[in-house]
Amino acid sequence: MRTPRELLVTVARRVGWLVGRRPRRVLVRGGSMAPTLRDGDVVLALPGATVRPGELALVRWASRPGQLSVKRAALAFDDGWFAVGDAPAASTDSRTLGPAEVVGPVRWRLWPHPGRLHAR
């Protein structure tokens, strides 16, 4: 089994040249994405890559420009995405903050259980 670092290097080599930007490791905080992701998970975001509906994405909101969040990109609009948490009761998302700007998709968990994350 590969270590998280080996997985990161492999994924970065495979997709880095396609994206034109460096993959970004993100530490998940809070329970808004449970059961898909848990507090303390480390995921890999691909800034600039295309996001499809149902995929996890690294997002930001105009009302919280300094904060990045991992949410599920549910529906694309002209001015952004409707992005929601998998645990609605524990999530502050587009339902209260409005459309989100997608930074890039989140397709891999690096830690604690490395592997591909799938769209719903």
From TrEMBL:
CDD domains: S26_SPase_I. The keyword Protease applies. Its main location: membrane. It is found in: Endomembrane system. Residues 27-72 form the Peptidase S24/S26A/S26B/S26C domain. Pfam families: Peptidase_S24. The keyword Protease applies. InterPro entries: LexA/Signal_pep-like_sf, Pept_S26A_signal_pept_1_Ser-AS, Peptidase_S24_S26A/B/C, Peptidase_S26. Keywords: Hydrolase, Protease. This is S26 family signal peptidase. It comes from Actinomycetospora lemnae.
